[in-house]
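Researcher: Please translate sequence to structure tokens.
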Amino acid sequence: MTEFTIHTLESAPKDSQPILAESLKSFGMIPNLHGVLAEAPGLLKAYQMLHELFVNTSFTNDELTVVWQTINVEHECNYCVPGHTGIAKMMQVDDAITDALRNGTSMPTDKLQALHVFTLAVVRKRGAVSEAELEAFFTAGYEQRHVLEVILGLSQKVISNYTNHVADTPIDQAFKKFAWKKK
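Model: Translation complete:
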């Protein structure tokens, strides 16, 4: 199998180095995903920009986690599920939410369950959700803005999940304790 390079600050293409330096400053390490993405500076920049835009949506930390992990689990991303488990802990998301997402059980609230179901529909139907699915989402208390913000989150996760599949990105040491495989 082709082995993808996990770049360091020194080995990364010049245009990726400032972005990796920011990752190092923010996380105290360069996540392996960022190291892989650094090979294509535009992709690394796009991923970072989408991440920043998504975390600044109208979603709460619990809702961000539901969108991220719903997509990660559906895409069977063995790198992102552990990573977002650790991130959820840092964001003080209730473990019941993370556990339900990792294990494929119901969310602790009806509203989060509606977000999970809708996000799955968007992923599985490639955005071609039905009027009934939209109505159920709106009835749960979400708005048109949230529909579009789910698509933003999906855009970010497609970059990371697909890259991790292609590159077989190893889990960062900090998240190995949260390792996950689809049951």
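Researcher: Any highlights?
Model: The chain has a mean pLDDT of 97.
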